[in-house]
Amino acid sequence: MKKCVITGAARTAVGGYLGSLKTVEAQDLCAAVIQEAANRSGIGTDKIDEVIMGDVYGYTPNVARCAALLAGVPESVPAFSVDRQCASSLQAVVSAVCEIAADEAEIVMAGGVEVMSRMPFYFDPSTRYKAFRMGDKTLYDTFTRGVTIVQPQALYPDTNMGLTAENVAEKYGISREAQDRFALDSQLKYKAAMEAGKFRDEIVPFEVVDRKNSFLFEVDEHPKTDTTLESLAKLKPAFKRDGTGTVTAGNASGMNDGASAVVVMSQAKADTLGLKPLVEIVSMASAGVDPRYMGLGPVPAVRKALEKAGLTLEDIALIELNEAFAAQSLGCLKELGMDMGSALYERVNVNGGAIAHGHALGNSGTRILTTLIYEMKRRKAMYGLATLCIGGGMGTAMIIKNIE
Length: 404
Prior knowledge:
Blueprint: E1 4-11, H1 26-41, E2 50-54, H2 63-70, E3 79-82, H3 88-101, E4 107-115, E5 121-123, H4 127-130, E6 139-141, H5 142-149, H6 161-172, H7 176-195, E7 206-209, E8 214-217, H8 229-233, E9 257-266, H9 267-273, E10 279-288, H10 298-309, E11 318-321, H11 326-335, H12 354-357, H13 364-379, E12 383-390, E13 394-402
Parallel strand pairs: 2-3, 2-4, 11-12
Antiparallel strand pairs: 1-9, 1-10, 4-9, 5-6, 7-8, 10-13, 12-13
Helix pairs in contact: 1-2, 3-13, 6-11
């Protein structure tokens, strides 16, 4: 396979649900990171051969194409959107590597976007052919329905994302207190990183314009940096309410808005253009698991990626494990030998994870990849790993190598 590298990476700040980005169209947010990633890479948008963007619950058809045109990518350049749930944008990077390897493109813009504040509601599909005759009609929420039907209910009845986290907690005996401690750790690490100014380099400020005024959005607004164990303990279980539930709003990720993008090209193309890459993409892998234990998807994906790279976890200096839920994160860490308190755990989510940052589904893969790249450059770390669990019972992982 051709050696592929990343030459530029950018993300927006992550918006809170119904927060600062609630009036922003996904394609506008996505266009901003396409332009900035190209600028940071040292190329114009006219040099891009393909645009691939992850998107899960958006209502803009093929948001990648809309965003590409808004960003100034030539009309002659194709674009497509991908949906691998929480790993959609990381899959966009995987697809970029595949296109370059197949000589279908030389430079690919890959990333993702999600504006969960603008997820549509809908009527039952039968409404289209049964029409409105008599009686009330139910309005369905795209998200709450989606997290249930992402796995076939005929095979996995009464399963939704929150309950899969409860299943992992039960399987490994992960207590509510352990989940809350993990969540607090995420918030505290984010707070320390924010106060150190670590996110300023990776974030592209975005101008939000509404009817009354405009403002520059450039600070993540989901983190709860005043979180304490006591405040977490007061929260009620969100999914199991029979007295046995352990997953709460405080030890799970949020519903969020954001966009991110990276520029992928072959090492040979970077050399031709005189560009200095940030990192090399060493290996990538996806794997499936029982949908009832969805959150364990990173475990086989990480193992496959490590095997393909000829590495072990001990070789990986920094790890970004997307924190969909504290329970599933702790389950993955246990399976991979990185329990809290271990030496390897100190390499995990060093600037906080999705419990603090937020989880804008189609954006999260390249959001964690971007954060990983910038931290690797700061620390001069050799290898980094980004991995996410995926709705429906899967995981995706990618290993990158620092280029100094």
